[in-house]
## 1
Amino acid sequence: MITIIAAIAENNALGKDNQLIWHLPADLKRFKMVTLNHFIIMGRKTFESLGKPLPNRTTVIITRNKDFKADGCIIVNSLQEALEAAKSDNNPYILGGAEIYSQAIKIADKLDITFVHQKFEADAFFPEIDTTVWKEVSREDLKADDKNKYNYSFVSFIRK
């Protein structure tokens, strides 16, 4: 099972200037819970936005830069190499960014999406989720509160 995990806005926005646009602690908590002890696959820019490997996960970074190094991480040059590096994990997670998502959505088995019910100005976008390909299998709708500024939903899709 290959799972894409992402938080996206109503206009499919992912981020701007290599940063998340919003802060939703509930999403970060859920992200940590579901990715713990798994391989996490991401592009170099996504890794650089995090600044370091995430604890208790194996970080695989995809980059075209043959000289790129990151302590404690596996460095590869393609999504296929990343999946090969993560083959010991029965459910690696793909964390983006936009370019990696657009490649991975063609081969992933599951989408684990946090929909942020707001539109944002962005320069990175998630690919369109084609409902002829993806079936929604679970949804949890949550309201904004004192810690989470926006209404949001945790939604899972599986490939039809």
Note: Helices lie at 25-35, 44-50, 79-85, 98-104.
## 2
Amino acid sequence: MTTAAGDLLGATRGGQVQRVLDAELAAVSRAHPDRRPRILDVGGGSGAWAVPLAASGCAVTVVDTSPNALATLQRRAREAGVDELITAVQGDVDALIEVVPPESADLVLGHELLEVVDDAPRALAAMTVAAVPGGAVSVLVTGRHAAVLGRVLAGELTEARMVLTDAEGRFGPADKLRRRLDASALRALLDAEGLHLEVLQGDGVLDTWVPRAVRDGGPAATRAVAELEALAADVPALREVAVRLHALGRRV
């Protein structure tokens, strides 16, 4: 249950996702001004999301199977001065109910998790149970169609064909990911768990394809790319070529 690397390099990671999470946590704070927002980060590894969220004032529990990743998380938390706000738990999503009380998190993160677990529906069901009624589940997954385009541009046509035609979006036995998803498959997963889909957007929609020379062209270029990315994230046709797809579902 370690964090899976994206298929393409160079994309700006998480900007649009962070905006959605910020809005969700602001709503939690307004509803419960007497306590910190409670976040469960499943497969959170070394704390790429957990440490910044704790720094913003959230109480974060990270569940991961890797003791090395959790040790790195704890070190990073200490260095950031947020170790008291982060709880590291070694465990697997399949046994999540054994290490995390049900209905205990305002927001559950499963970022770059569903690509690597044995059973994606079962993992999502466990995360849903961990959310309070009315709470949210945030899922970030590797996009199938971006992987196809990336391989075409690299001249790896056989792999591109396999990712496009394989039921799970894999390029063969050597593939480290168990699946890649498109928007319809991600939506179907959330629907099957009874989650009300509130956000379905791309992350790394266009900035992935912007030439590096442009991305490295200084502050003005960085702003232009970020603004273009923000506009493209919610466009359905463009969303399908995002490196990652992000969904936020509400437990009802």
Note: The beta strands are 38-42, 59-64, 86-90, 105-111, 131-142, 195-203, 244-251.
## 3
Amino acid sequence: MTIWRRALVALSLLSAAGAALAIDYRSVSVPAAILFDAPSLQGKKLYLIKAQTPVEVVVKLDGWFKVRDAEGTLAWIESRSIGERRTLVVTASKAEVRQSDKPESPVLAELEKWVAVDFIESASPGWAKVRHRDGATGFIRSTQVWGL
């Protein structure tokens, strides 16, 4: 009986740790934001990041987020430049938005690399429901985008 209790405790701790490690993706909400090497306006300016670009929030400090972009670069951004809206960015050379979350479904749009789309919801495994700025709504393979 002791072994089962230990196993149950270990399993519940792993479940709690998984929930605590949920990835926090957000998007840039201003036309352009500066990324810094430190959480300070006096830090070195690294580069600009445009609106709707998804980032992964890695660390939160007072007024600042340390974020990772689709290329894996880590930098600091003022938290006021980040919104709750979620977008995805195409990382494949070409991505297809399909009518349904099936590979044989008709293609609604083809998107070039670095195009941003609004994330609507998760779909069946390996797919996400998205909306392009022109209004096309459909499903994209999760392997063709970053921000999930």
Note: The domain at 87-146 is CATH 2.30.30.40 (SH3 type barrels.).
## 4
Amino acid sequence: MSEQDRADELIQQMKEAVYQANLALPRAGLVKLTWGNVSQINRELGVIVIKPSGIPYQTMKAKDMVVTNLDGEVLSGELRPSSDLPTHSYLYQEFSEVNSIVHTHSKWAVCWAQAGRDIPAYGTTHADTFYGSVPCTRKLTQEEVATAYELETGKVIVETFAERKLDPLAIPAVVVNGHGPFTWGGTPEKAVEASLILEEVAEMALHSEELAVTTDFLLPSYVLNKHYFRKHGAGAYYGQGN
């Protein structure tokens, strides 16, 4: 097989994987209408595959997925890529171990974004996936919105993780202030899974605050450590292994 044939085959596999991951979003109740997108990067080939902009999930096909280079230039496909591509592209540049990104406007995660609040780690369901609170970014400035909105969205996410010294692999999610959630992972399936878990823990956290009779109910650090590291890292023992 020639190098070009191999590249074409890998891109076709990416388009199918991204298509299936996008379809998983409405099935999981994470998007309504066209409010979401999934992308995947192949750094060796220098390409990103992403959902086309504004295409209904019901009519979308794998062939509709748009292939771009890392600068957002369309390499193949007749449709425009998601308008969130500059956000995805910037995150790929800065988070070098991330291979897939999901953006939704899922209800409960958006509630925290609109409130401008981190999603606290109140319980073990949260700790199994997110090693601490899921951060909320600062608000974008008027100038940032006017000049390069989607790119600046990526930049404010990276800024948030850098300023707080957070590991994007240990906390594979963020809520953008006034906007909504982005999640990521090593594969499209893992990125979608992070979105689903984020939505669940966002709802749980909101109701926990409604029910709590004390303000001191953050999960103790020793329980957070136990639950996170039993699933992640060299000492993980949850599940059946590789």
Note: The chain has a mean pLDDT of 93.
